[in-house]
Amino acid sequence: MNRAAPVATRRGRDGEEGFALxxxxxxxxxxxxxxxxxVLGARTDFVVAxxxxxxxxxxxxxxxxxxxxxxxxxxxxxxxxxxxxxxxxEPLRCLSGRYRIEARVQDQRGLIGINNAQPELLAAGFxxxxxxxxxxxxxxxxxxxxxxxxxxxxxxxxxxxxxxxxPTGEPPPDADPGQPPQQANPRLRSMVDSERVNGGLKLKPxxxxxxxxxxxxxxxxxxxxxxxxxxxQNTVDTVVGARLSTRLARVLPAGGSxxxxxxxxxxxxxxxxxxxxxxxxxxxxxxxxxxxxxxLASEGEAGDxxxxxxxTNPEFLPEAQGDFSGAMDCSMIFGVxxxxxxxxxx
Length: 346
Prior knowledge:
Elements: H1 5-74, E1 92-96, E2 99-107, E3 112-113, H2 119-128, H3 133-147, H4 186-193, H5 223-227, E4 230-231, E5 239-240, E6 263-264, E7 272-282, E8 288-297, E9 305-310, H6 331-334, H7 336-344
Parallel strand pairs: 3-4, 5-6
Antiparallel strand pairs: 1-2, 2-7, 7-8, 8-9
Helix pairs in contact: 2-3
């Protein structure tokens, strides 16, 4: 008469087991929801750390190759392999194992000394950067005004006594007491009013070519383009025709003439300054390392050199423009021993 009871008991047990299974599934889902982001975050951190380690390694390699180029340029006589090193900002590309290497070297004597060049040479520089003729004239006038100290503030020639300061409260004899010092000269005032220079005139020599970004029309231009035309390391008012950058060679001849008195055939004796940049990437091009600096090479026979200003990483060229199909043998740039080390580290 009581045989139905076991059936009810089984149903109760089935319900309890189903509820327990549901709770286990919910627990597993909760654990997954908590653990999955942690696992994904750990994997992301691992990938980022791995990429950072790889980039540090490539940057260290680029720094070493930069030093090799500096030593080769400074050490006379040049070895045969250095015939492959051009000093006119042309990209030197080579493949070594799994590395894609691009180097650029520019002799600063082949660039326009932005603080010393005459207006005609400055105009050629702006033309090389693609400015229109109407803008070039204004830019030349603005740049000359920007870099020129006010009257009486120029550095005196060596040996000359410093100029006497005017009595306290009295303006210089040629100053207009009703105007600020930088607007005392009508030509300087017109340059400020024309807004060719953002923030007014510095009235001192430029300390870096990046200061040209204060001039109208320069924003958005890659620093690498400007560095292939102007330099603060060239402290004379001439350029060496044989060392003209590729960009300047489009608008200036390699030899001097009455129309181009600022182009000289042979550089003056003295230390040589180069801007060297090296980019090292892997075969897939995903990660790259950069090293750049100005290098002062001794004029003596010891082959001494020293690093000057370090350059920051410029905009990388799009991969399509970094064509390695015509890459040269890396030993022509760095030597057989260095290439062997690169191969061993691949």
